[in-house]
Structure formats: structure tokens, C-alpha cells
Amino acid sequence: MQTPAVTNDNQDGFFRMITVYTFSRNLAFLLIIILLAGCARAIDGLPIVYQPELRQGTLFTQENVAQLEPGMNERQVRFLLGPATIEDPFIDDRWDYVYQLEPRSTKAEPVTKRLTVYFDQGALIGAEGEYIEPGHPLYR
């Protein structure tokens, strides 16, 4: 019994079949990936994506604000509260402190604190905003 001779025609057909099979498999894989990517419309809600919280501004605490007294100079206020978030170049006697915290990886609510302090000839005369209640010596 003789084995059939392998001809070039048989080899070409075999390699062509492998090439078509590989191309079809890769095309199917690519289509599946594209379809699955289209289904992921809420990527922000995925727990695998870490998003750090955003902290902006100058953090001031109730203890710092409680230490403010009328007549303090600008240097003393800066020592207690830190640098002002907004110093208006046109109004030298007003400093605005804004602190914002946006926890993006949890369901917690964003936090915004505002405080405005007023000076007259370099001396603290008033404040308004967070932790300044009516009856406070600096209430405005």
C-alpha cells in the first residue's frame, strides 16, 4: 500500500485553511471586545476604579476660627487660618477662605466651607461664613 504523495496543492489548501481560521478567530475576538466595551456605560460606578478625593482651598477649623479676635493684624490671622484662598487685588481689606472636599470614591456628600474676613487698616474688624454665628464678636 502506498501513501498518497503530498503535493503543493494540498499544502496550499491546508495553509489557506489555517489562515482563514486564524483570521476568523481574531475577528470574532475583536468584535466581542467591541461589543462588551459598548455595554460598559457606567465605568464610574465600577468598584475597581479608584478615584482619589479632591481637596481644594485652605482648610480651616472651628478651633482656628474661635481664636480670631477683633483687632488682630493680618499676620496673626494668616498664622491661624493659613493663606487666603482668594485675595482680591482690588480690595485689600477682604480675604476669602474656601475649602472644598469632594469624595469621589465613596457616596459621601461633598463638603464646602466658606469664610470671609475683613480688615480695616490692617486690623481684623469682622468675619462672616462658616463657624461665625450671631453673637460672635466678629459677626457681620
From TrEMBL:
Highest taxon of source: Bacteria
GO cellular component, one term: Bam protein complex
Keyword Membrane: yes
Outer membrane protein assembly factor BamE domain mapped to chain residues: 57-125
Main location: membrane
Matching Gene3D superfamilies: 3.30.1450.10
Compartments it resides in: Cell outer membrane
Keyword tags: Cell outer membrane, Membrane, Signal
Subunit structure as annotated in this protein's UniProt entry: Part of the Bam complex.
Entry function: Part of the outer membrane protein assembly complex, which is involved in assembly and insertion of beta-barrel proteins into the outer membrane.
Family per similarity comment: Belongs to the BamE family.
Protein's name according to its UniProt entry: Outer membrane protein assembly factor BamE
Origin organism lineage: Bacteria, Pseudomonadati, Pseudomonadota, Gammaproteobacteria, Chromatiales
Gene field: bamE
